[in-house]
Design goal:
Elements lengths: L9 E9 L4 H15 L3 E8 L7 E9 L13 E4 L2 H7 L8 E5 L13 E3 L1 H7 L6 H13 L4 H11 L5 H32 L2
Parallel strand pairs: 1-4, 4-5, 5-6
Antiparallel strand pairs: 1-3, 2-3
Helix pairs in contact: 1-5, 3-4, 4-6, 5-6
Amino acid sequence: MANARGEKGRSEIILTGFGGQGIVLAGKILGQAAAIGDNRESTLVQSYGPEARGGACSAQVIISDTAIHYPHVRRPDILVCMSQAGFEKYIGELSEAGTLLIDLDLVKPQGLGCEYFSIPSTRMAEELGRKMMANIIMLGFLVAVTKAVNPDSAREAVSSSVPRGTQDKNISAFNKGYDYGAAVLKARHKKAHGEAESGQ
């Protein structure tokens, strides 16, 4: 798993999907959590395909303990994919020790040699009755798995970034993703610990 602060207190993150999923908003919230909540440096670079809704979309976020002189991600430590096209475009750029997170129902990481983390974020959002909150569920999952920002800082940033009147629902969505990520990490740790003991 990627060190949330990298070698020099720095994380380079790409979130990718298609327009309409709230990818850029998730990137904005992540950067805001780092800058305002955690008092660190952060930058956000966004890009869209030819169509805003349905076209390719990505957000590049850099979080650092020191000044950021170049805002574009060169080699992501963390790659979040909420579309197959985004996965195929960026998977080759993920650093060797990087962390990959995917939407379980939207991305099929065939032929992948590295470990990855998956969550059915879109399905979970649909179960909450708000498909548009899949990005917030994924954000909670990201924070739990990578520890890129403090979870309380992320919750504050979610609350101040979503439309008024939807704060509680979005915080619940964040917590749902966060709890799912925490459970995945716990299960992996338990499995690794069991394998280590059986190998002694």
